[in-house]
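Structure first, sequence second, as always.
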């Protein structure tokens, strides 16, 4: 009987050892089958987005730079967050308290980076649709690059401050040895990282939707009297509206996948790394990171064309970066 009890402990030689957490078959399938599969797909698809926007000069626009930032965040989720989550899902945490805190930094950095990128994308679409005459003066590549750098700097700094209690006294929230628990101030986090940015996104997109509907009605009512110059303006407006619709789908999918994460964060509970709830939350994050390139492939012809050029190794040819991938 004593041997059986010792076998159930993470560290049988320690009196303060945790008991090995039992795992259901559903959880095992999620961790060892679905999570690695979606992780690999996420890495490949987002790498295609990164290569496409980085390589082809025709895609070097402010909006695409924001998509590039989002793709980098999604790529890191698939490459780093998912493997660490599989490691954290083991019945016992064997790497020590310091590694527990450090491993938790990766997912906590990628989440706000994605959210801030979404806010920047919403601002970009708002200016393009609602203030079109000022767009090319206000939204330049240099300006966007600065905001992207600030986005990532903010994500790292915020999460260092966010996890300061866990870093001051490492392992203070663990109830036994072999456990990895991260204290989360849910009330503060959900206001700064969710309510404020998501409210901004919703307000901006509601405004974009209202203006888009107004423009669509105006274009339909005046389509017969459009001159050549006006026709070019209408074409540009249609292009901007299509981009707004596509990015609107990205925002909606983002909200659907991240709301459960912040719903649990709102309860201000301690994250037990590797628990079923924690694994399910990060599985939704992986799904979101995987779906974004799928949305691009469905709505953006240029992305499909870029993928074809990449897969067929056409990008290795000289001057391939000058290829016209936009119609």
């Amino acid at each position: 009987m004593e041997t059986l009890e010792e076998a159930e402990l993470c560290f049988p030689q320690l009196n303060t050892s945790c008991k090995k957490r039992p795992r259901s078959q559903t959880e095992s399938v999620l961790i060892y089958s679905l999570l690695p599969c979606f992780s690999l797909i996420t890495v490949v698809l987002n790498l295609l987005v990164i290569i496409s926007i980085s390589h082809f000069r025709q895609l070097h626009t402010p909006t695409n730079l924001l998509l590039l930032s989002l793709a980098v965040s999604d790529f890191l989720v698939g490459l780093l967050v998912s493997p660490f989550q599989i490691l954290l899902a083991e019945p016992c945490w064997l790497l020590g308290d310091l590694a527990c805190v450090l491993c938790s930094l990766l997912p906590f950095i990628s989440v706000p980076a994605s959210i801030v990128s979404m806010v920047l994308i919403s601002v970009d679409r708002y200016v393009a649709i609602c203030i079109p005459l000022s767009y090319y003066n206000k939204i330049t590549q240099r300006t966007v690059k600065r905001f992207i750098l600030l986005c990532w700097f903010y994500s790292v700094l915020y999460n260092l401050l966010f996890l300061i209690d866990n870093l001051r006294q490492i392992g203070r929230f663990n109830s036994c040895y072999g456990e990895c628990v991260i204290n989360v101030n849910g009330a503060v986090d959900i206001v700064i990282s969710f309510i404020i940015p998501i409210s901004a996104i919703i307000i901006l997109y509601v405004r974009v939707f209202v203006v888009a509907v107004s423009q669509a009605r105006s274009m339909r009512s005046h389509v017969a009297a459009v001159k050549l110059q006006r026709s070019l303006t209408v074409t540009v407006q249609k292009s901007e509206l299509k981009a707004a619709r596509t990015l609107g789908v990205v925002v909606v999918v983002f909200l659907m996948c991240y709301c459960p994460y912040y719903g649990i964060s709102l309860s201000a509970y301690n994250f037990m790394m590797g628990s079923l709830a924690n694994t399910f939350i990060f599985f939704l994050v992986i799904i979101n990171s995987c779906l974004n390139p799928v949305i691009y492939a469905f709505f953006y012809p240029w992305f499909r064309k870029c993928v074809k050029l990449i897969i067929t190794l056409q990008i290795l040819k000289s001057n391939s970066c000058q290829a016209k991938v936009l119609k």
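Margin note: The longest strand covers residues 181-183.
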